[in-house]
């Protein structure tokens, strides 16, 4: 027996993009069904990004999913860029007319959105197998196995919010999309440690041995990243080795100390820049990591996913209100303008801060000059700051 479900928008993927889209559509009176491959617990516990742009925070608050964030999120007004054993503060707020960022884990965003959808009677199917998107040219449908039964969701449109390894992008016929990609010759090893952060602000460190980042999740939880070789087995990194390497990279001439504590989670993430154009085929619209990936150095992946679905939700709203496809037809071009600016920023931050093994002595000097410039010129620091706090959400 096939369980048949009819809805307006079929959403594949219950990460930040899929859930925020479903929530915004609900507020606009548009029905959707979310089909997620993993369990609710898995999605809610997955440790990933942690920096929310002010636009993302404002969007959550304006749409009734910002209560916990207002209580628990940590507002930051600056970041530190550290090199040559010295720290340089970039005053994000002062350089951008008062804008700020917020530290609030991606899994907390996912929890808040899942709770809101379920409280409103929204349909989210977790632990779905064999998910397929079909009928993209005419009558779209999503099929999947859930609780041992085949399900078929028929809908007007499909939103492919299923991340980089999802099924939606590969279901588009070969030749319809152009791919732009750069793979970096390193990865990030990320840890979560049950210890108070060693600084009130994020620290991006460029060191001869490689990049390191100090971040946090709460006054009791530190999040740290370290540049490592790509595809390196995690077993190569016992806890002591991680702490020793972090301490070396964060070391300053005035003897700054990194707090150590029990490591509760660790994982290695490869780094790439990736974009497909267009972000749409027939009645399928790609959003978030399904359409593009940025290296994490600018803290942009999650924020970009949220911006895409904001544009998409408005386009669906316009379609159901007036029958006009103008915004839907413009979806890809509208998003890509911002996507490419964010790609540029993420690539630039990555290039400035990481150690590239093949670099010549000239490249090293140029990289050093870039760090010196960005931390000593108000114009250069302002450019970093306006990108870091987030370019305007609204299409220009
Ligand atoms: P996702 O969060 O990937 O959500 C996609 C959802 O689709 C997932 O829940 C997945 O289970 C589901 N799915 C996948 N395939 C299927 C299928 N076939 N059927 C149904 N559902 C499916 N960004 C930063 O800014 N800083 C970071 O430190 C950082 N760390 C990261 C670490 C990792 C390991 C990864 C993978 C990403 C990281 N990112 C980071 C990027 C950031 O987390 C993403 O940009 C963000 O999650 C994008 O949201 P999304 O909803 O588009 O995709
Ligand atoms: C975090 C992740 C990032 O990629 C970044 O640039 C800053 C902070 C974080 O997980 O806290």
How would you concisely characterize the structure shown here?
By secondary structure, the chain is an alpha/beta fold.
What does this structure look like?
- The chain is of the alpha/beta class and 396 residues long.
- It folds into two domains: 2-50 and 105-177 and 278-355, FAD/NAD(P)-binding domain (3-Layer(bba) Sandwich); 181-271, D-Amino Acid Oxidase, Chain A, domain 2 (2-Layer Sandwich), CATH 3.30.9.
- It is 36% helix and 29% strand.
- It is built from eleven helices and 21 strands.
- The strands form four sheets. Strands 7-6-15-16-17-14-18-21 form an eight-stranded mixed sheet.
- Helix 8 runs antiparallel to helix 9 (326-353) and helix 10 crosses helix 11.
- It is globular and about 65 Å long.
- The structure holds flavin-adenine dinucleotide and 3,4-dihydroxybenzoic acid.
- Residues 49-51, 202, 213, 215, 223, 296-297, 299 line the site of 3,4-dihydroxybenzoic acid (DHB).
Give the cofactors and ligands: flavin-adenine dinucleotide, 3,4-dihydroxybenzoic acid
Class of the largest domain in CATH?
Answer: Alpha Beta
| Physical arrangement of strands within the biggest beta sheet | 7-6-15-16-17-14-18-21
CATH fold description of the largest domain: FAD/NAD(P)-binding domain
Task: State the oligomer.
Answer: single chain
The mean pLDDT is 97
Secondary structure class reads alpha/beta
Strand content: 25-35%
Instruction: Please give the radius of gyration in angstroms.
Output: 21 Å
Per-chain topology:
Blueprint: E1 2-6, E2 9-12, H1 16-27, E3 32-35, H2 40-45, E4 51-53, H3 54-62, H4 67-72, E5 74-76, E6 79-83, E7 86-90, H5 92-95, E8 101-103, H6 106-119, E9 123-125, E10 129-134, E11 141-146, E12 149-154, E13 157-160, E14 178-193, E15 202-205, E16 212-218, E17 221-228, H7 239-250, E18 263-277, E19 280-281, E20 284-286, E21 292-293, H8 301-322, H9 326-353, H10 361-376, H11 378-389
Parallel strand pairs: 1-12, 2-3, 2-13, 3-9, 6-15, 13-20
Antiparallel strand pairs: 4-8, 5-8, 6-7, 10-11, 11-12, 14-17, 14-18, 15-16, 16-17, 18-21, 19-20
3,4-dihydroxybenzoic acid is lined by residues 49-51, 202, 213, 215, 223, 296-297, 299.
């Amino acid at each position: 027996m096939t369980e048949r479900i009819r809805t307006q928008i079929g959403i594949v993927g219950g990460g930040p993009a899929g859930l925020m889209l479903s929530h915004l559509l609900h507020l606009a009176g548009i029905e959707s069904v979310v089909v997620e491959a993993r369990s609710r617990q898995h999605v809610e516990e997955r440790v990933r990004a942690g920096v929310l742009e002010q636009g993302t925070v404002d969007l959550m608050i304006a749409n009734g999913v910002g209560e916990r964030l207002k209580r628990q999120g940590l507002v930051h007004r600056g970041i530190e860029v550290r090199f040559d054993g010295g720290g340089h503060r970039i005053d994000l707020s002062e350089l951008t007319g008062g804008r700020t960022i917020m530290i609030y884990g991606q899994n907390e965003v996912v929890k808040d959105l899942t709770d809101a959808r379920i409280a409103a009677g929204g349909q989210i199917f977790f632990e779905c197998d064999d998910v397929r998107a079909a009928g993209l040219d005419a009558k779209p449908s999503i099929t999947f196995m859930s609780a041992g039964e085949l399900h078929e969701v028929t809908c007007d449109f499909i939103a492919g919010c299923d991340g980089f390894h999802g099924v939606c992008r590969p279901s588009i016929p070969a030749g319809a999309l152009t791919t732009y990609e750069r793979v970096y010759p390193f990865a990030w090893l990320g840890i979560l440690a049950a210890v108070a952060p060693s600084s009130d602000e994020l620290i991006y460190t460029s060191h001869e041995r490689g990049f390191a980042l100090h971040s946090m999740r709460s006054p009791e939880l530190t999040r740290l990243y370290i540049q490592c070789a790509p595809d390196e087995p995690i077993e190569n990194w016992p806890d002591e080795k991680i702490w020793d390497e972090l301490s070396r990279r964060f070391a300053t001439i005035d003897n700054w100390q990194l707090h150590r504590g029990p490591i509760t989670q660790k994982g290695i993430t490869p780094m790439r820049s990736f974009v497909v154009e267009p972000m749409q085929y027939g009645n399928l619209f790609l959003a978030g990591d399904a359409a593009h990936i940025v290296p994490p150095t600018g803290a942009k992946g999650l924020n970009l996913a949220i911006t895409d679905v904001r544009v998409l939700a408005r386009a669906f709203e316009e379609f159901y209100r007036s029958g006009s496809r103008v915004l839907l037809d413009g979806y890809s071009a509208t998003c890509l303008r911002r996507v490419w600016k964010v790609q540029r920023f993420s690539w630039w931050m990555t290039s400035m801060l990481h150690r590239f093994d093949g670099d010549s002595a000239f490249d090293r000097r140029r990289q050093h000059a870039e760090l010196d410039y960005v931390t000593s010129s108000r114009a250069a620091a302002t450019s970093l700051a306006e990108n870091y706090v987030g370019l305007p959400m609204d299409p220009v």
